[in-house]
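The methods section describes the discrete structure representation at length, but only in general terms. What matters is that the chain and its backbone geometry are given together, residue for residue. For illustration, here is how one protein appears when written out as sequence plus structure tokens:
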Amino acid sequence: MRKIIADLAVSLDGFIEGPNGETDWCILDDDMDMEAFIDTVDTIFYGRVSYDAWGNFEPEATASPAEKQLWHNVHSRKKYVFSKQAGAGDGKATFIHTDIKTAVAAIRQQEGKDIWLYGGAGLIRSFMNADLIDVYRLSVHPLVLGGGIPLFRDLQQRINLQLLHSHVFRSGVVQLVYKPVR
């Protein structure tokens, strides 16, 4: 069965966005090899707000060829948007307004690679509370935001995790990869 991987940037104090929704603090170094991660997934799950911000994001013309290729590869994946608001969508993603567990179970049974749970915070929390995440891949950035949108809030139960591996990048970002202990 396909795994759902929550791959997230998080500040040292546990925030995934700053106080004003900013993510400009996120570091993407070449030694992080996001391309290798993107190659392991063929599907991306978004919440509505995250999809509106990043689902069709195009880097600036001055962006490096590597960044442009990364976003091209991200956009070539199948996209699902989980939203409480009914709507037709934009034709580039499948919008899901039904029960998350039922929809996810059907998608997981399809042939394919793993699934990237992109976010946002509300969707990630829903997946955590429904015990739908198979791998937590957290890239802890070397800064303290002091406020913003926390990764772990309003959880219905404790989530015990087992460390699979860790890696320290040149930038000081520490990537921790866990699986839930079920």
